[in-house]
Amino acid sequence: MTGTFETDVLIVGGGPAGSSTALSLLRYTNFKVVVLEQSNLNTMRVGEQVNASIFDILEYMGITKNDFDNETFLPAFDSLAAWGNSNISSRHSIFNTQHDSYQLDRENFDLLLLKKVSESGATVLPRTKALEFSFENGFWEVLLEHQIKGSFKIKAKYIVDASGRQSYVARKVGLDFEQHDELVAVGTFLHFDKNIALTQEIFVETVEDGWWYFATLPDNKVVVSLFSDADIVKEKQLHKAENWVKEILKTKHIQKKLPSSVTIHKIWTRNAFSHFVRMDGQNHFLAVGDAVASFDPISSMGIGFAMSSGSFAAKAIADHSSNPNALKAYEDSIQNILGNYNETKGFYYRKEQRWPDSSFWKKRISF
User: What's the superkingdom here (predicted)?
Assistant: First the structure.
């Protein structure tokens, strides 16, 4: 593939943030939209708890709950935690005051959003990586590489970075990346026998080096992960199955949720740090979702923020021609959200005082 193609908006990243930006643009403007996704869309995704407000965001984009498979939104009947002490209590995420919550099947959810993007008229390019970016005469020119069809270029009036926590595009164009911690998730997916009836639940338990997360997923799967700091994981080699299992056996509650015969085949490590990208009026550029600001997973802000920030970014782009301050106003709104989040996160972590000498908790209770 050769040549240069033109579009109004190029969105780098086909997750919920990128799809929400695209769907909002396609519904409320006449802009041409191209969505770039580096993966082949087959990556297994960690499920996430969401509240009923997600349906309002979907409705804004012209999507209803009935558009999804029945198992995309599983009622989270129990959301429990042993946080601050060893007793189990009901848990609500630090920004979720709604009682109706759901465990999300991320694979079904993400793929349907992207399907709706394509059906609404956008061009979706999977297995395609953006290599180089330049801005001149009011347009971005981006060099792309498709795994099979080779190199080509896209010329766009606006670029939206929806590349996730690593903020790939923002870094490539030289924006300031402020990382606030070194949180990582070390975990695994477990498949249970179909004859075992799993309770739909989410459970969080704090330990000396962080906190454990257990959640039921569709198809009789669960996800179990330890959230800790990267230096602790490296020092204790917690990415190795035998060490990870030793740590889970120290828990009071999580270990009881796993059958004694379960075999751990693969442990993965994924970034979970908080950060913020300062856009500072970068020409015709916005970042959305985790690419602009990522939050501690304890907040359960991931999907909701990804989708709402995408919708707000789309409106800022739509308003930009008549309001030159629209992009800056969008960035200011993200900073306000981040300020409120940091204050509430500090309050939440300070509830755990049992390990004052732990490097993990020491960093957070003094926040």
Answer: Bacteria
Q: Element (H or E) spanning 245, and its range?
A: helix 241-248
Q: How many Å apart are CA 93 and CA 346, to the nearest integer?
A: 13
Residues paired with residue 224 on neighbouring β-strands, in sequence order: 188, 214
Residue for token pair 């799967």: 221
Is residue 161 within 8 A of residue 292, CB to CB? The reply is yes
**Residue-by-residue pLDDT tens, the chain, 367 positions:** 567 899 999 999 999 999 999 999 999 999 999 999 987 655 555 666 788 889 999 999 999 999 998 878 877 666 789 999 999 887 654 445 445 677 788 888 999 999 999 999 999 999 999 999 999 999 999 999 988 888 999 999 999 999 999 999 999 999 999 999 999 999 998 887 777 777 777 899 999 999 999 988 777 788 999 999 999 999 999 999 999 999 999 999 999 988 766 667 689 999 999 999 999 878 899 999 999 999 998 887 888 899 999 999 999 999 999 999 999 999 999 999 998 888 888 888 999 999 999 999 999 876 5
Domains of the chain (ranges; CATH) run: 4-48+106-180+275-347 (3.50.50.60)
